[in-house]
Amino acid sequence: MAGMAGAIQLAASQDRFGAAVAGALGDVDGDGLNDIAITAPWHGVLDNNDGAIFVAFLREDDSVKDSLRLSLALSGGLSFMPSGYQ
What is the DSSP letter of 76? Predict the structure, then answer.
């Protein structure tokens, strides 16, 4: 997918980013374009490898304009962060 490497930053190549992709999310951000979810099952904060789901907000040309990382927070709850946040 064009533009993905610039919009979604991962901590390590072994995160297994793209192990599953779901294109049936619909328009999550309200811009009239479908968005997708991408898994990274070994992505982790502080090397805990809990996994993460990235929601990619797409442009008309299918490049990624922005993204959101969903993962377990250190407190045990669900964390929502812009994907570039480390």
Answer: S
Q: What is the DSSP string of 12-66?
A: -GGG-TTS-EEEEEE-SSSSSS-EEEEEETT--GGG----EEEEEEE-TTS-EEE
Query: SS3 of 77, please?
Result: coil
* Distance from the first to the final alpha carbon of the chain: 23
pLDDT digits (tens, 9 = 90+) for 62-78: 888 888 888 775 556 55
CA distance 24 to 10: 23
CB 45 within 8 A of CB 52: no
pTM, rounded to two decimals: 0.70
